[in-house]
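Thread: Major facilitator superfamily (MFS) profile domain-containing protein, structure

OP (GT): Posting the sequence first so everyone is looking at the same thing. Length is 157 residues per the record. Can we get the structure tokens written out before standup tomorrow? I want them in the notebook alongside the other entries.
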Amino acid sequence: TFQCGYNISVINAPTMHVQAFINRTWSDRYQANISENALTLLWSTIVSIFTLGGLLGVTIGGTLSEVWFCCRKGTLLSNNLFSLTAALLMGLSSSVGLFEFLIIGRFLIGINAGIGLCVEPMFLGEISPTAFRGALGSGTSIFLTVGILSGQVMGLK
């Protein structure tokens, strides 16, 4: 959940750098400058695709936790594949000159966040002792908020 909160807010900090990367990539690819409308559309897509991935992740999270590897722990462990793939794609996007990797990576990390937000509270509720169940249950919200705060602090100039 920390990762979900962080990804919600961290995208604001590198706006100028990502838009410059899109400009360079577009110019190299098409030998022309990108229009302001196209740049805004691409940037908006990169930012908002995380939410669409999250919607998909939350939608499938409950079902996966019942059937995927027969348990919630297996679902959470296999969910890391979305995170690792997203990190690889977003990390390589500049090297290979494909801003599309940012879009795909943000979508995948959104799926990861959605599944995590859906399955993690169920898993914590099942494994925690009764005396600590409330505290651990609220941990999801706390770490989501701390993740948002961390992403915003990293963006301070």
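GT: Both are above now. Quick notes for whoever picks this up: The chain has one domain: 2-154. The longest helix spans residues 36-67.
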